[in-house]
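so the lab meeting is tmrw and i was supposed to have these ready like two days ago... anyway. pasting both below. for each one the top line is the aa sequence and the line under it is the C-alpha coordinates. i havent really looked at them closely yet so no promises
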Amino acid sequence: MSLSRLPKILPPGFESEHLKILMVQMCSSVDLNENLNWLIETLESDLQKGHADLIVLPEASLSIGAQAFPAQTVTQGWKGWDALVGLCSRHNTVLHMGSVVLQCSELKPFNASVLVSSAGIDILYKKLFLFELETPKLRVCESDSMISGQSWPKPFKIGQWSFGQSICFDLRFSQLFWKQAVLGVDAFLVPSAFFQLTGRAHWKTLLKARAIENQSYVLGVGQVGAHKISKSVVRKSYGHSMAIDPWGVVLENLEGQDAKTCRVVLDKALIAKVRSKVPMEKQMHLAEKLC
Protein backbone atom coordinates (compact mmCIF):
# COMPACT_ATOMS: atom_id res chain seq x y z
CA MET A 1 0.00 0.00 0.00
CA SER A 2 1.18 3.54 -0.67
CA LEU A 3 1.40 6.07 2.16
CA SER A 4 -0.03 9.54 1.68
CA ARG A 5 2.08 11.26 4.35
CA LEU A 6 5.83 10.68 4.46
CA PRO A 7 8.58 13.22 5.04
CA LYS A 8 10.55 14.36 1.99
CA ILE A 9 13.77 13.38 3.76
CA LEU A 10 13.42 9.93 5.32
CA PRO A 11 15.34 8.74 8.37
CA PRO A 12 18.63 7.35 6.98
CA GLY A 13 18.03 3.68 7.70
CA PHE A 14 15.09 3.44 5.30
CA GLU A 15 17.48 4.00 2.39
CA SER A 16 20.18 1.61 3.64
CA GLU A 17 20.77 -2.10 4.30
CA HIS A 18 20.46 -1.62 8.06
CA LEU A 19 17.38 -0.27 9.85
CA LYS A 20 17.49 0.88 13.48
CA ILE A 21 14.36 -0.08 15.44
CA LEU A 22 13.25 1.09 18.88
CA MET A 23 10.64 -1.20 20.46
CA VAL A 24 8.57 0.27 23.32
CA GLN A 25 6.90 -2.12 25.75
CA MET A 26 4.18 -0.22 27.61
CA CYS A 27 1.89 -0.62 30.59
CA SER A 28 -0.88 1.68 29.36
CA SER A 29 -3.79 2.77 31.48
CA VAL A 30 -7.26 3.72 30.29
CA ASP A 31 -6.30 7.43 30.50
CA LEU A 32 -5.40 8.89 27.11
CA ASN A 33 -3.44 11.91 28.32
CA GLU A 34 -1.54 9.93 30.94
CA ASN A 35 -0.30 7.49 28.30
CA LEU A 36 0.57 10.26 25.84
CA ASN A 37 2.64 12.11 28.45
CA TRP A 38 4.48 8.92 29.48
CA LEU A 39 5.18 8.09 25.86
CA ILE A 40 6.59 11.49 24.94
CA GLU A 41 8.74 11.64 28.08
CA THR A 42 10.09 8.12 27.49
CA LEU A 43 10.82 8.65 23.81
CA GLU A 44 12.47 12.04 24.33
CA SER A 45 14.78 10.45 26.90
CA ASP A 46 15.53 7.34 24.85
CA LEU A 47 16.16 9.18 21.58
CA GLN A 48 18.72 11.38 23.32
CA LYS A 49 20.81 8.22 23.72
CA GLY A 50 20.77 7.32 20.03
CA HIS A 51 18.83 7.60 16.81
CA ALA A 52 16.05 5.21 15.75
CA ASP A 53 14.68 5.10 12.22
CA LEU A 54 11.43 3.43 13.29
CA ILE A 55 9.73 3.28 16.70
CA VAL A 56 7.16 0.51 17.28
CA LEU A 57 4.53 0.60 20.07
CA PRO A 58 2.14 -2.12 21.33
CA GLU A 59 -1.57 -2.59 20.76
CA ALA A 60 -3.82 -0.07 22.57
CA SER A 61 -0.83 2.18 23.15
CA LEU A 62 -2.85 5.31 23.96
CA SER A 63 -5.63 3.70 26.01
CA ILE A 64 -6.40 0.14 27.11
CA GLY A 65 -9.73 -1.07 28.45
CA ALA A 66 -11.22 -4.19 30.01
CA GLN A 67 -14.63 -5.75 30.47
CA ALA A 68 -17.25 -3.01 30.99
CA PHE A 69 -14.62 -0.24 30.85
CA PRO A 70 -13.86 0.47 27.17
CA ALA A 71 -10.69 2.24 26.12
CA GLN A 72 -10.80 5.94 25.32
CA THR A 73 -11.02 6.65 21.61
CA VAL A 74 -9.14 9.04 19.34
CA THR A 75 -10.10 10.55 15.99
CA GLN A 76 -8.04 11.74 13.04
CA GLY A 77 -8.49 15.26 14.38
CA TRP A 78 -7.25 14.46 17.90
CA LYS A 79 -4.96 17.26 19.16
CA GLY A 80 -2.45 14.78 20.63
CA TRP A 81 -1.25 13.86 17.15
CA ASP A 82 0.47 17.26 16.94
CA ALA A 83 2.76 16.42 19.86
CA LEU A 84 3.74 13.10 18.27
CA VAL A 85 4.30 14.66 14.85
CA GLY A 86 6.53 17.23 16.55
CA LEU A 87 8.55 14.49 18.26
CA CYS A 88 9.09 12.73 14.93
CA SER A 89 10.20 16.00 13.36
CA ARG A 90 12.68 16.82 16.13
CA HIS A 91 14.31 13.39 16.03
CA ASN A 92 13.95 12.53 12.32
CA THR A 93 12.11 9.30 13.09
CA VAL A 94 8.91 7.46 12.15
CA LEU A 95 6.50 6.22 14.83
CA HIS A 96 4.25 3.18 14.41
CA MET A 97 1.55 3.54 17.07
CA GLY A 98 0.99 -0.21 17.38
CA SER A 99 -2.74 0.26 17.51
CA VAL A 100 -5.17 2.84 18.87
CA VAL A 101 -8.93 2.79 19.39
CA LEU A 102 -9.96 4.90 16.42
CA GLN A 103 -13.42 6.45 16.23
CA CYS A 104 -14.58 6.99 12.65
CA SER A 105 -18.16 7.56 11.49
CA GLU A 106 -19.37 4.13 12.65
CA LEU A 107 -21.14 3.61 15.97
CA LYS A 108 -18.29 1.48 17.31
CA PRO A 109 -14.58 2.29 16.93
CA PHE A 110 -11.91 0.28 15.13
CA ASN A 111 -8.72 -1.17 16.56
CA ALA A 112 -6.40 0.51 14.05
CA SER A 113 -2.71 0.94 13.29
CA VAL A 114 -1.54 4.51 12.66
CA LEU A 115 1.83 5.72 11.36
CA VAL A 116 3.15 9.09 12.52
CA SER A 117 5.94 11.05 10.86
CA SER A 118 6.98 14.68 10.55
CA ALA A 119 4.55 14.89 7.60
CA GLY A 120 1.47 13.87 9.63
CA ILE A 121 -0.46 10.63 10.21
CA ASP A 122 -1.51 7.70 8.02
CA ILE A 123 -4.18 5.17 9.04
CA LEU A 124 -2.63 1.90 7.93
CA TYR A 125 -4.86 -1.00 8.92
CA LYS A 126 -8.05 -1.80 10.84
CA LYS A 127 -7.78 -5.04 12.80
CA LEU A 128 -9.46 -7.91 10.96
CA PHE A 129 -9.65 -10.68 13.57
CA LEU A 130 -11.18 -9.47 16.85
CA PHE A 131 -10.13 -11.27 20.00
CA GLU A 132 -12.34 -13.77 21.82
CA LEU A 133 -11.49 -15.73 24.96
CA GLU A 134 -13.82 -17.93 27.00
CA THR A 135 -12.70 -19.62 30.22
CA PRO A 136 -14.58 -20.47 33.45
CA LYS A 137 -13.07 -17.33 35.05
CA LEU A 138 -12.72 -14.93 32.15
CA ARG A 139 -14.74 -13.91 29.09
CA VAL A 140 -13.35 -11.38 26.62
CA CYS A 141 -15.09 -10.46 23.37
CA GLU A 142 -13.53 -7.54 21.51
CA SER A 143 -16.52 -7.25 19.19
CA ASP A 144 -18.63 -6.08 22.16
CA SER A 145 -16.94 -2.67 21.95
CA MET A 146 -15.29 -2.55 18.49
CA ILE A 147 -15.94 -3.44 14.88
CA SER A 148 -13.70 -5.39 12.56
CA GLY A 149 -11.91 -4.09 9.50
CA GLN A 150 -13.31 -5.71 6.37
CA SER A 151 -10.17 -6.26 4.28
CA TRP A 152 -6.84 -8.07 4.47
CA PRO A 153 -3.91 -5.89 5.49
CA LYS A 154 -1.37 -5.00 2.82
CA PRO A 155 2.35 -4.37 3.29
CA PHE A 156 3.44 -0.75 3.39
CA LYS A 157 6.78 0.50 2.15
CA ILE A 158 9.06 3.22 3.47
CA GLY A 159 12.12 3.77 1.34
CA GLN A 160 13.75 0.39 0.67
CA TRP A 161 11.96 -1.45 3.50
CA SER A 162 8.60 -3.24 3.33
CA PHE A 163 6.52 -3.99 6.42
CA GLY A 164 3.75 -6.53 6.93
CA GLN A 165 0.87 -5.65 9.24
CA SER A 166 -1.07 -7.39 12.01
CA ILE A 167 -2.56 -6.64 15.42
CA CYS A 168 -2.44 -9.12 18.32
CA PHE A 169 -5.07 -11.85 17.67
CA ASP A 170 -4.17 -11.72 13.95
CA LEU A 171 -0.98 -13.56 14.95
CA ARG A 172 -2.95 -16.81 15.16
CA PHE A 173 -3.97 -16.65 11.48
CA SER A 174 -0.99 -17.64 9.36
CA GLN A 175 -2.79 -16.87 6.11
CA LEU A 176 -2.93 -13.18 7.03
CA PHE A 177 0.88 -13.17 7.11
CA TRP A 178 1.33 -15.39 4.06
CA LYS A 179 -0.93 -13.21 1.91
CA GLN A 180 1.38 -10.28 2.64
CA ALA A 181 4.63 -12.25 2.39
CA VAL A 182 3.99 -13.14 -1.27
CA LEU A 183 3.82 -9.39 -1.98
CA GLY A 184 7.25 -8.90 -0.42
CA VAL A 185 7.85 -8.23 3.30
CA ASP A 186 11.11 -7.56 5.13
CA ALA A 187 9.61 -7.34 8.63
CA PHE A 188 6.21 -8.02 10.19
CA LEU A 189 4.95 -5.72 12.93
CA VAL A 190 2.90 -7.48 15.63
CA PRO A 191 1.68 -4.94 18.20
CA SER A 192 -0.12 -6.88 20.91
CA ALA A 193 -1.70 -7.00 24.35
CA PHE A 194 -1.67 -10.74 25.08
CA PHE A 195 -3.22 -11.84 28.35
CA GLN A 196 -0.82 -13.69 30.65
CA LEU A 197 -2.72 -16.97 30.18
CA THR A 198 -2.40 -17.04 26.39
CA GLY A 199 0.98 -15.30 26.39
CA ARG A 200 2.69 -17.97 28.46
CA ALA A 201 1.24 -20.71 26.27
CA HIS A 202 1.49 -19.31 22.75
CA TRP A 203 3.25 -15.94 22.28
CA LYS A 204 6.84 -17.01 21.57
CA THR A 205 5.79 -20.07 19.56
CA LEU A 206 3.54 -18.06 17.26
CA LEU A 207 6.07 -15.27 16.73
CA LYS A 208 8.82 -17.72 15.81
CA ALA A 209 6.52 -19.62 13.47
CA ARG A 210 5.53 -16.47 11.59
CA ALA A 211 9.20 -15.47 11.21
CA ILE A 212 10.37 -18.90 10.00
CA GLU A 213 7.53 -19.65 7.58
CA ASN A 214 7.71 -16.21 5.96
CA GLN A 215 11.51 -15.77 6.20
CA SER A 216 11.06 -12.26 7.56
CA TYR A 217 11.86 -10.37 10.73
CA VAL A 218 9.02 -10.33 13.25
CA LEU A 219 8.73 -7.53 15.82
CA GLY A 220 6.28 -8.48 18.55
CA VAL A 221 5.74 -5.45 20.81
CA GLY A 222 3.46 -6.05 23.77
CA GLN A 223 1.63 -4.46 26.63
CA VAL A 224 2.95 -5.62 30.02
CA GLY A 225 1.99 -5.82 33.67
CA ALA A 226 -1.08 -4.69 35.59
CA HIS A 227 -3.11 -1.96 33.86
CA LYS A 228 -5.08 0.59 35.85
CA ILE A 229 -8.57 0.40 34.32
CA SER A 230 -10.77 1.45 37.24
CA LYS A 231 -10.79 1.28 41.04
CA SER A 232 -12.03 -2.30 40.91
CA VAL A 233 -10.72 -3.60 37.57
CA VAL A 234 -7.11 -4.47 36.78
CA ARG A 235 -6.09 -6.12 33.52
CA LYS A 236 -2.79 -8.03 33.31
CA SER A 237 -0.75 -8.35 30.12
CA TYR A 238 2.07 -10.76 29.31
CA GLY A 239 4.75 -8.50 27.85
CA HIS A 240 7.87 -10.34 26.65
CA SER A 241 8.24 -8.13 23.59
CA MET A 242 10.46 -9.93 21.10
CA ALA A 243 12.45 -9.34 17.94
CA ILE A 244 12.96 -12.49 15.88
CA ASP A 245 15.10 -12.82 12.77
CA PRO A 246 14.13 -14.65 9.53
CA TRP A 247 15.88 -17.84 10.71
CA GLY A 248 13.82 -17.87 13.92
CA VAL A 249 16.55 -16.61 16.25
CA VAL A 250 15.29 -14.46 19.14
CA LEU A 251 17.31 -11.24 19.02
CA GLU A 252 15.58 -9.49 21.93
CA ASN A 253 13.20 -10.66 24.65
CA LEU A 254 12.00 -8.14 27.24
CA GLU A 255 11.45 -10.33 30.28
CA GLY A 256 9.87 -9.20 33.55
CA GLN A 257 6.74 -7.14 34.11
CA ASP A 258 8.05 -3.65 33.48
CA ALA A 259 7.49 -1.03 30.79
CA LYS A 260 10.82 -0.67 29.00
CA THR A 261 12.48 -0.26 25.61
CA CYS A 262 14.96 -2.19 23.52
CA ARG A 263 16.79 -1.65 20.25
CA VAL A 264 17.43 -3.96 17.33
CA VAL A 265 19.03 -3.47 13.90
CA LEU A 266 17.45 -5.19 10.91
CA ASP A 267 19.82 -6.42 8.21
CA LYS A 268 18.78 -6.82 4.55
CA ALA A 269 21.71 -9.17 3.90
CA LEU A 270 20.46 -11.63 6.52
CA ILE A 271 17.03 -11.75 4.89
CA ALA A 272 18.64 -12.55 1.53
CA LYS A 273 20.92 -15.17 3.11
CA VAL A 274 18.04 -17.04 4.75
CA ARG A 275 15.93 -16.98 1.57
CA SER A 276 18.89 -18.22 -0.47
CA LYS A 277 19.60 -21.04 1.98
CA VAL A 278 15.99 -22.33 1.95
CA PRO A 279 14.36 -21.04 -1.28
CA MET A 280 10.60 -20.76 -0.81
CA GLU A 281 9.45 -17.89 -3.04
CA LYS A 282 8.46 -19.97 -6.09
CA GLN A 283 6.54 -22.45 -3.98
CA MET A 284 4.78 -19.63 -2.13
CA HIS A 285 3.55 -18.16 -5.39
CA LEU A 286 2.50 -21.64 -6.60
CA ALA A 287 0.53 -22.14 -3.38
CA GLU A 288 -1.12 -18.76 -3.93
CA LYS A 289 -2.33 -19.86 -7.38
CA LEU A 290 -3.62 -23.19 -6.06
CA CYS A 291 -5.54 -21.46 -3.30
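ok protien two:
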Amino acid sequence: MTALMNNRLDFTIKAYLKTVQRNLGTVVDDIARGFFVITHSSFALLGLLVAFGVITLVARQDLREAGEVKLMAWLQDRRGTAISPKENVPVSNAVALVERPVAEKPKVLSSQQAAVASWISKKYSVAQEPVGALVAEAYEIGHNVKLDPTLILAIMAIESGFNPFAQSPVGAQGLMQVMTQVHHDKYAKIGGRLAAFDPVANLRVGVKVLQECITRAGSIEGGLKYYVGAANLPSDGGYASKVMAERARLLDVVGGRRPPAPRLVAAAPIAVRVAPSPSPTHAPAEPLEKKAMDQEVAQLGSF
Protein backbone atom coordinates (compact mmCIF):
# COMPACT_ATOMS: atom_id res chain seq x y z
CA MET A 1 0.00 0.00 0.00
CA THR A 2 2.77 2.35 0.92
CA ALA A 3 4.65 1.60 -2.36
CA LEU A 4 1.52 2.36 -4.37
CA MET A 5 1.12 5.72 -2.67
CA ASN A 6 4.77 6.56 -3.30
CA ASN A 7 4.42 5.74 -6.98
CA ARG A 8 1.36 7.96 -7.26
CA LEU A 9 3.21 10.81 -5.50
CA ASP A 10 6.18 10.50 -7.84
CA PHE A 11 3.89 10.50 -10.83
CA THR A 12 2.06 13.56 -9.56
CA ILE A 13 5.34 15.44 -8.95
CA LYS A 14 6.69 14.56 -12.40
CA ALA A 15 3.45 15.63 -14.05
CA TYR A 16 3.55 18.93 -12.14
CA LEU A 17 7.16 19.54 -13.08
CA LYS A 18 6.39 18.85 -16.74
CA THR A 19 3.48 21.30 -16.58
CA VAL A 20 5.68 23.97 -14.99
CA GLN A 21 8.40 23.37 -17.58
CA ARG A 22 5.91 23.60 -20.43
CA ASN A 23 4.41 26.81 -19.04
CA LEU A 24 7.85 28.35 -18.56
CA GLY A 25 8.75 27.45 -22.14
CA THR A 26 5.56 29.09 -23.36
CA VAL A 27 6.33 32.28 -21.37
CA VAL A 28 9.92 32.44 -22.66
CA ASP A 29 8.73 31.86 -26.21
CA ASP A 30 6.11 34.59 -25.90
CA ILE A 31 8.71 37.00 -24.49
CA ALA A 32 11.16 36.22 -27.29
CA ARG A 33 8.49 36.69 -29.96
CA GLY A 34 7.34 39.95 -28.40
CA PHE A 35 10.90 41.26 -28.18
CA PHE A 36 11.48 40.39 -31.84
CA VAL A 37 8.27 42.17 -32.91
CA ILE A 38 9.09 45.26 -30.85
CA THR A 39 12.70 45.39 -32.14
CA HIS A 40 11.60 44.87 -35.72
CA SER A 41 9.00 47.63 -35.43
CA SER A 42 11.49 49.98 -33.75
CA PHE A 43 14.07 49.54 -36.51
CA ALA A 44 11.37 50.04 -39.13
CA LEU A 45 10.27 53.25 -37.40
CA LEU A 46 13.87 54.43 -37.07
CA GLY A 47 14.43 53.79 -40.78
CA LEU A 48 11.33 55.81 -41.65
CA LEU A 49 12.51 58.69 -39.44
CA VAL A 50 15.99 58.68 -41.03
CA ALA A 51 14.50 58.61 -44.54
CA PHE A 52 12.14 61.46 -43.65
CA GLY A 53 15.05 63.49 -42.19
CA VAL A 54 17.22 62.98 -45.28
CA ILE A 55 14.38 63.99 -47.62
CA THR A 56 13.68 67.08 -45.50
CA LEU A 57 17.35 68.18 -45.51
CA VAL A 58 17.61 67.68 -49.26
CA ALA A 59 14.46 69.69 -49.89
CA ARG A 60 15.15 72.44 -47.33
CA GLN A 61 18.58 74.00 -47.84
CA ASP A 62 17.99 76.52 -45.05
CA LEU A 63 17.45 73.73 -42.51
CA ARG A 64 20.57 71.95 -43.75
CA GLU A 65 22.70 75.10 -43.39
CA ALA A 66 21.26 75.81 -39.93
CA GLY A 67 22.11 72.25 -38.90
CA GLU A 68 25.66 72.63 -40.19
CA VAL A 69 26.10 75.83 -38.18
CA LYS A 70 24.80 74.23 -34.97
CA LEU A 71 26.96 71.16 -35.50
CA MET A 72 30.03 73.33 -36.07
CA ALA A 73 29.32 75.32 -32.91
CA TRP A 74 28.92 72.08 -30.93
CA LEU A 75 32.20 70.71 -32.30
CA GLN A 76 33.97 73.97 -31.45
CA ASP A 77 32.60 73.77 -27.90
CA ARG A 78 33.82 70.18 -27.58
CA ARG A 79 37.26 71.14 -28.86
CA GLY A 80 37.39 74.14 -26.55
CA THR A 81 36.85 71.97 -23.48
CA ALA A 82 39.69 69.70 -24.60
CA ILE A 83 42.20 72.57 -24.53
CA SER A 84 44.16 72.58 -21.29
CA PRO A 85 44.33 75.75 -19.14
CA LYS A 86 47.99 76.07 -19.98
CA GLU A 87 47.16 76.42 -23.67
CA ASN A 88 44.66 79.17 -22.91
CA VAL A 89 47.26 81.45 -21.35
CA PRO A 90 47.60 84.63 -23.49
CA VAL A 91 50.82 84.72 -25.48
CA SER A 92 52.83 87.81 -24.67
CA ASN A 93 56.08 86.79 -26.33
CA ALA A 94 56.39 88.33 -29.80
CA VAL A 95 58.39 85.41 -31.17
CA ALA A 96 55.74 82.94 -29.98
CA LEU A 97 53.08 84.98 -31.79
CA VAL A 98 54.94 84.66 -35.08
CA GLU A 99 55.78 80.97 -34.70
CA ARG A 100 52.31 79.87 -33.54
CA PRO A 101 50.25 78.21 -36.31
CA VAL A 102 46.84 79.92 -36.43
CA ALA A 103 44.97 76.62 -36.83
CA GLU A 104 46.58 74.87 -33.87
CA LYS A 105 44.57 76.44 -31.05
CA PRO A 106 41.27 77.78 -32.41
CA LYS A 107 39.11 79.75 -30.03
CA VAL A 108 35.62 78.70 -29.09
CA LEU A 109 33.15 80.31 -31.49
CA SER A 110 29.67 81.62 -30.80
CA SER A 111 26.86 80.52 -33.08
CA GLN A 112 27.15 83.77 -35.08
CA GLN A 113 30.90 83.40 -35.46
CA ALA A 114 30.52 79.77 -36.50
CA ALA A 115 27.98 80.81 -39.14
CA VAL A 116 30.34 83.47 -40.49
CA ALA A 117 33.28 81.04 -40.54
CA SER A 118 31.20 78.42 -42.36
CA TRP A 119 30.03 80.93 -44.99
CA ILE A 120 33.53 82.28 -45.59
CA SER A 121 34.93 78.76 -45.82
CA LYS A 122 32.46 77.83 -48.54
CA LYS A 123 32.75 81.05 -50.54
CA TYR A 124 36.54 81.35 -50.53
CA SER A 125 37.42 77.64 -50.49
CA VAL A 126 39.50 77.88 -47.32
CA ALA A 127 39.67 75.52 -44.36
CA GLN A 128 37.05 76.30 -41.74
CA GLU A 129 39.22 75.73 -38.66
CA PRO A 130 41.83 78.46 -39.30
CA VAL A 131 39.13 80.78 -40.65
CA GLY A 132 37.23 80.23 -37.41
CA ALA A 133 40.30 81.37 -35.47
CA LEU A 134 40.53 84.51 -37.64
CA VAL A 135 36.82 85.23 -37.18
CA ALA A 136 37.18 84.95 -33.39
CA GLU A 137 40.25 87.22 -33.48
CA ALA A 138 38.43 89.78 -35.64
CA TYR A 139 35.49 89.83 -33.21
CA GLU A 140 37.78 90.25 -30.22
CA ILE A 141 39.87 93.02 -31.78
CA GLY A 142 36.81 94.73 -33.21
CA HIS A 143 35.20 94.78 -29.77
CA ASN A 144 38.36 96.24 -28.20
CA VAL A 145 38.83 99.03 -30.77
CA LYS A 146 35.11 99.70 -31.44
CA LEU A 147 35.21 98.50 -35.06
CA ASP A 148 32.63 96.25 -36.67
CA PRO A 149 34.28 92.81 -37.07
CA THR A 150 32.38 92.25 -40.31
CA LEU A 151 34.18 95.29 -41.76
CA ILE A 152 37.54 93.76 -40.80
CA LEU A 153 36.58 90.42 -42.34
CA ALA A 154 35.26 92.13 -45.48
CA ILE A 155 38.60 93.88 -45.97
CA MET A 156 40.41 90.54 -45.63
CA ALA A 157 38.06 89.04 -48.20
CA ILE A 158 38.54 91.78 -50.79
CA GLU A 159 42.24 92.30 -50.16
CA SER A 160 43.55 88.72 -50.13
CA GLY A 161 40.66 86.27 -50.37
CA PHE A 162 41.87 85.02 -46.94
CA ASN A 163 45.29 84.06 -48.31
CA PRO A 164 47.80 84.93 -45.53
CA PHE A 165 50.72 84.77 -47.99
CA ALA A 166 49.31 87.16 -50.59
CA GLN A 167 51.62 89.88 -51.85
CA SER A 168 50.87 92.63 -54.34
CA PRO A 169 53.36 94.03 -56.90
CA VAL A 170 53.75 97.20 -54.80
CA GLY A 171 54.62 95.38 -51.57
CA ALA A 172 51.28 95.01 -49.77
CA GLN A 173 51.46 91.76 -47.81
CA GLY A 174 49.35 89.30 -45.88
CA LEU A 175 45.66 88.92 -45.12
CA MET A 176 44.93 92.65 -44.97
CA GLN A 177 47.58 93.63 -47.55
CA VAL A 178 49.43 96.01 -45.24
CA MET A 179 52.26 98.01 -46.81
CA THR A 180 55.03 96.48 -44.72
CA GLN A 181 57.69 99.00 -45.78
CA VAL A 182 55.48 101.89 -44.69
CA HIS A 183 54.20 100.34 -41.45
CA HIS A 184 57.30 98.39 -40.40
CA ASP A 185 57.26 100.22 -37.05
CA LYS A 186 53.98 98.52 -36.18
CA TYR A 187 55.54 95.10 -36.75
CA ALA A 188 58.63 95.88 -34.64
CA LYS A 189 57.00 94.77 -31.37
CA ILE A 190 55.51 91.55 -32.76
CA GLY A 191 58.40 89.93 -34.58
CA GLY A 192 59.57 92.31 -37.30
CA ARG A 193 58.68 92.53 -40.97
CA LEU A 194 58.29 88.79 -41.47
CA ALA A 195 55.36 88.90 -39.06
CA ALA A 196 53.40 90.36 -41.97
CA PHE A 197 52.77 86.77 -43.08
CA ASP A 198 51.54 85.66 -39.67
CA PRO A 199 47.73 85.86 -40.00
CA VAL A 200 47.02 87.17 -36.51
CA ALA A 201 49.91 89.66 -36.54
CA ASN A 202 48.86 90.96 -39.96
CA LEU A 203 45.27 91.24 -38.75
CA ARG A 204 46.27 93.31 -35.71
CA VAL A 205 48.50 95.65 -37.68
CA GLY A 206 45.91 95.97 -40.44
CA VAL A 207 43.27 97.01 -37.90
CA LYS A 208 45.63 99.67 -36.51
CA VAL A 209 46.19 101.05 -40.00
CA LEU A 210 42.45 100.97 -40.68
CA GLN A 211 41.78 102.89 -37.46
CA GLU A 212 44.26 105.58 -38.46
CA CYS A 213 42.74 105.83 -41.94
CA ILE A 214 39.17 106.17 -40.64
CA THR A 215 40.30 108.79 -38.11
CA ARG A 216 42.03 110.81 -40.82
CA ALA A 217 39.13 110.58 -43.26
CA GLY A 218 36.32 110.98 -40.76
CA SER A 219 34.20 108.17 -42.23
CA ILE A 220 34.41 104.47 -43.03
CA GLU A 221 34.15 104.98 -46.78
CA GLY A 222 36.79 107.71 -46.70
CA GLY A 223 38.98 105.58 -44.46
CA LEU A 224 38.79 102.74 -46.97
CA LYS A 225 40.00 105.12 -49.68
CA TYR A 226 42.97 106.01 -47.47
CA TYR A 227 43.52 102.33 -46.66
CA VAL A 228 43.84 101.32 -50.30
CA GLY A 229 46.15 104.27 -50.94
CA ALA A 230 43.79 106.20 -53.17
CA ALA A 231 43.13 109.19 -50.91
CA ASN A 232 44.78 111.56 -53.38
CA LEU A 233 43.34 109.91 -56.49
CA PRO A 234 40.03 110.73 -58.20
CA SER A 235 38.73 107.20 -57.64
CA ASP A 236 39.54 104.14 -55.57
CA GLY A 237 38.56 101.81 -58.42
CA GLY A 238 35.41 100.68 -56.64
CA TYR A 239 37.37 99.33 -53.66
CA ALA A 240 35.18 100.87 -50.93
CA SER A 241 32.01 99.68 -52.67
CA LYS A 242 33.34 96.11 -52.86
CA VAL A 243 34.26 96.12 -49.17
CA MET A 244 30.91 97.55 -48.08
CA ALA A 245 29.01 95.05 -50.26
CA GLU A 246 30.91 92.13 -48.74
CA ARG A 247 30.32 93.57 -45.28
CA ALA A 248 26.57 93.69 -46.02
CA ARG A 249 26.63 89.99 -46.98
CA LEU A 250 28.45 89.12 -43.76
CA LEU A 251 25.90 91.10 -41.75
CA ASP A 252 23.17 89.03 -43.39
CA VAL A 253 24.93 85.87 -42.21
CA VAL A 254 25.29 87.28 -38.68
CA GLY A 255 21.60 88.20 -38.63
CA GLY A 256 20.55 84.71 -39.66
CA ARG A 257 19.45 85.85 -43.11
CA ARG A 258 20.48 84.08 -46.28
CA PRO A 259 22.83 86.16 -48.42
CA PRO A 260 23.28 85.27 -52.09
CA ALA A 261 24.56 81.71 -52.51
CA PRO A 262 28.34 81.58 -51.87
CA ARG A 263 30.31 81.69 -55.09
CA LEU A 264 33.75 80.09 -55.21
CA VAL A 265 36.24 82.90 -55.76
CA ALA A 266 39.97 83.25 -55.87
CA ALA A 267 41.91 86.06 -54.25
CA ALA A 268 40.62 89.22 -55.88
CA PRO A 269 43.15 91.51 -57.59
CA ILE A 270 44.01 94.41 -55.35
CA ALA A 271 43.11 97.89 -56.49
CA VAL A 272 45.98 100.18 -57.50
CA ARG A 273 47.66 100.78 -54.18
CA VAL A 274 50.00 103.61 -53.36
CA ALA A 275 52.26 104.14 -50.40
CA PRO A 276 50.37 106.44 -48.01
CA SER A 277 52.17 109.52 -46.78
CA PRO A 278 53.28 109.40 -43.12
CA SER A 279 51.03 112.32 -42.18
CA PRO A 280 48.23 114.38 -43.77
CA THR A 281 50.55 117.39 -44.18
CA HIS A 282 52.84 115.63 -46.65
CA ALA A 283 52.45 116.08 -50.38
CA PRO A 284 50.30 113.50 -52.20
CA ALA A 285 52.21 110.29 -52.79
CA GLU A 286 52.76 109.32 -56.41
CA PRO A 287 51.55 105.78 -57.29
CA LEU A 288 54.43 103.31 -57.06
CA GLU A 289 53.48 101.65 -60.34
CA LYS A 290 53.70 105.03 -62.13
CA LYS A 291 57.10 105.66 -60.54
CA ALA A 292 58.39 102.32 -61.76
CA MET A 293 57.07 103.02 -65.26
CA ASP A 294 58.77 106.46 -65.34
CA GLN A 295 62.07 104.85 -64.29
CA GLU A 296 61.81 102.29 -67.09
CA VAL A 297 61.12 105.05 -69.63
CA ALA A 298 64.10 107.02 -68.37
CA GLN A 299 66.35 103.96 -68.67
CA LEU A 300 65.20 103.32 -72.24
CA GLY A 301 65.89 106.92 -73.15
CA SER A 302 69.45 106.68 -71.89
CA PHE A 303 70.43 104.07 -74.55
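from a quick look at the 2nd one: Residues 180 and 199 are 14 Å apart (CA to CA). The first strand starts at residue 172 and ends at 173. will dig more after coffe
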